[in-house]
Amino acid sequence: MSEEFSLQEVIDSFKLSLSDSKEIFMDQYVEGWRGLVKLLNSLGSVFGFISKDVVNKLSILVSLRGGPEGAHYLSLQSMVQYELQSGLVEGGDHPASGTRGVSGCRTLLRLHRALRWLQLFLGGVSRDEGTPPTLCSLAYSQSLSQHHPWVIRSAAGLAFRMLPPRDPFLRMLNAGEPPQAVEVLGGAVPVLGEVYTITEELYSKHDLLNLP
Ligand code: 1PZ
Q: Boundaries of each Glycolipid transfer protein domain copy (predicted)?
């Protein structure tokens, strides 16, 4: 994978994360997020605190996946089953090093909620419903913000105002000229939506949507 952000790469990773039986594979899910981090980083240092949090969460998931119990982290479904069975969901004493006190389930839940924000935001951009800063804060108020304390909401609000206007933003997606980028975006939204919905149903079925 190149250092430069590519929307198509992100779409491909999330697509590949879905198995035929609608399981979601952890490695490809993480890969999709790694791609998104590149976009965040290319937006400038005001977004650094957001990208740092995502990187931190990804490294927790990667170390669980690479740890002694890594086989249980093959998919989101197997992670949920394993952590529920072993009493690790609320952040037990993980065998994997460096992840004491944090569960894979609670870590992934944060990314999962952010995926909803992304789906709303990119959907709005693809349908040209407003400028990126406006759509970003609208999507945020409809999703993630309810899970964030005031101090994060206000820092996020400041960062949103630094987003570029529509065409420069579309060019940053590295998916061709704006009209083409819009088409690629239109294809990305349903893929993100499918990953989101499967995860939401999985978490809801096991009553994990409010993990601290
Ligand atoms: C394109 C512009 C990007 C805007 C991103 C919109 C989301 C703003 C979120 C700001 C919060 C980041 C600071 C860290 C917050 C953490 O406290 C929370 C909860 O984790 P905990 O403290 O419980 O461990 N973290 C999150 O909610 C995850 C936030 C991830 C944001 C991902 C943005 C994805 C960007 C994609 C590419 C444009």
A: 26-174
pLDDT in tens, 106-165: 999 999 999 999 999 999 999 999 999 999 999 999 999 999 999 999 999 999 999 999
2 domain residue, yes or no: no
Q: For residues 172 and 42, is the Cβ–Cβ distance under 8 A? A: yes
Residue 30, in any domain of the structure? yes
The ligand 1 site (C-beta within 6 Å) comprises: 36, 39-40, 43, 47, 49-50, 53-54, 110, 114, 117-118, 136, 140, 144, 152, 156, 163
Task: Kindly state the tokens that stand for 15.
Answer: 């697509």
* Cα 202 from Cα 122, distance rounded (Å): 24
Whether residue 210 is contained in a domain is answered as: no
**Host domain of residue 124:** 7-205
Report which ligand 1 atom has the smallest distance to the Cα of 121: 1
Number of the ligand 1 atom closest to the C-alpha atom of 132: 1
Decide: 127 and 139 in contact? Cβ < 8 Å: no
**Taking Cα atoms as reference points, which of 210, 59, 80 lies closest to residue 147?**
210
What CATH number should be reported for the domain holding residue 17? 1.10.3520.10
Quote the ipTM score.
Answer: 0.97
pLDDT digits (tens, 9 = 90+) for 9-58: 999 999 999 999 999 999 999 999 999 999 999 999 999 999 999 999 99
* Residue 100 exposure: Cα atoms within 13 Å on the Cβ side: 3
Residue nearest to atom 20 of ligand 1 (CA): 110
